[in-house]
Amino acid sequence: MHKNSLDLMSLFVTGYLSNYGGESIRILDVGSQGVDADARTYRQLFVGENWQYQGLDIAEGHNVDVCVLDPYVWHEVPSDAFDVVISGQTLEHVPFFWNLVFEVGRVLRPGGLACLIAPSGGHEHRYPVDCWRFYPDGFSALSTWLGFELLDTFTDWSHYWGDSVVILKKPTWTIDERQAFEHRWQVAMSLLPGSHTFTDITFEATAEASILKNSPQGKLSELASHRRTLLSTALHRLQRAVLELLGPRITRGAISVRNQLRSGKAPTAN
Ligand SMILES: C[S@@+](CC[C@H](N)C(=O)[O-])C[C@H]1O[C@@H](n2cnc3c(N)ncnc32)[C@H](O)[C@@H]1O
User: Fold this and answer.
1) I need a labelling partner for 208 at 20 to 30 A (CA). Which of 113, 124, 219, 267 fits?
2) DSSP string, 226-255
3) What region, left, alpha or beta, does residue 63 occupy, with left being phi > 0 and alpha being psi -120 to 50 degrees?
4) Closest CA to 140 of 159, 116, 161
5) Which helix or strand (DSSP H or E) is residue 5 part of?
6) What is the pLDDT of residues 215-236, one digit of tens each?
7) Which atom of ligand 1 is closest in space to residue 87's alpha carbon?
């Protein structure tokens, strides 16, 4: 996993979960497998005393607790079970990602949060396929598609992958609204190509709301922009220090080369 994505998810934890360090919070990481040589994963960020992190993937491997048989219908995961669903560098590999987010919607508790990170740029990288890139307008459309609340979305242009981030909140719906979601979920699943069974997936008429239900708007944008300012100030200071240190030597060297060229001598290294 590239460091910028880890940093953005860490800011999500700071901005949205740090007040709940002692509370019981369940986190599901979709596409959790540690695939890079560094084997870095988001697990290390979710370390609250009573927090329970679970990694879900379609492949067995490092950092995978639940390996699902069907990429779009997670028979292994009950409805309304998680306070937080996270995912990084995965949506671009899912051909019908609009169906996958319906599963994210199903397994979140009312008031629960999804924090999804996916690239807007970078090179083609197939795990096992590479289908899509994401922008805030696309994430906003996904929010509407689910009937969720959009708490934040932006693209971090400071990095090679141009990570786009979205934070969605599952509303605390009335019974009728929950049934409408269930109906839309079933229609979406029935349109999937291939054979998918989902008669065993159960939806309850009510569910207890997550402790995160009062989460703020725009907190991650604020923290990410603060981080970029700090980084660019630090870079600017470093550039000035290097120039102050090496500037006089570079200037002396340039003057010496110019003088040697003027006098017709070949420049000598000094
Ligand atoms: C590029 S890797 C990213 C892994 C990790 N999140 C990271 O950033 O290092 C994408 C992962 O998504 C998994 N994946 C692809 N489709 C999936 C699906 N429908 N549900 C869950 N995981 C999926 C792949 O098996 C792979 O492990």
Assistant:
1) 219
2) HHHHHHHHHHHHHHHHHHHHHHHHHHHHHH
3) left
4) 116
5) helix 3-12
6) 999 999 999 999 888 877 777 6
7) 6
Query: What is the pTM assigned to this prediction?
Result: 0.88
Q: What is the pLDDT of residues 3-44, one digit of tens each?
A: 999 999 999 999 999 999 999 999 999 999 999 888 899 999
At residue 208's C-alpha, the angle toward residues 202 and 212, to 5°, is 120
8 A C-beta contact, residue 166 and residue 153: yes
Nearest CA to ligand 1 atom 18: 71
Instruction: Write out the E strands in 19-169.
Output: 25-30, 51-57, 66-67, 82-88, 108-119, 149-155, 163-169
CA of 135 to the centre of ligand 1 (A): 19
How far is residue 96 CA from its own chain's centroid?
A: 18
